[in-house]
Predict the structure.
Amino acid sequence: MPSLFSLKKLLIMAILILALIFILFFWPKTLFQITNTSSLTMAGNLFGGKTKEVIPCLHPFTGFYIKLSGPTAGDFIYNSGTSKSYLYGPPNPNRLGQWLLGYAAGDVKCFTAEKHGKWRNPKSGTLILFHGSSM
């Protein structure tokens, strides 16, 4: 016959398991959802759209100046040393219309070159921190 002490342990364990089941399955799910996305976007912004223009940047870093159409149109800079690419790699100048979706923060400038080797006026845009792309 089990002792009184072991019965108390079993009862406490059963109560803890029932409480855990209640919390996981019956607690209002709104408590576990993110209600304010400002903490996620405090340092930057989410972006996404089709590429309209992709120009290689040559100075002060290698990368691309990217002009996106909607839904979040704008100018963005892909820095090959800082930006992280997922899926199909960095933006491709030969594939205009490629979709990009990601997270960007901070304004940066880069120079592109003309055919005669002279620097163009600097292009400015938001630095892409990470993104995924379509084919």
About this structure: Confidence is low (pLDDT under 50) at residues 28-41. The chain has two domains: 4-35, 42-133.
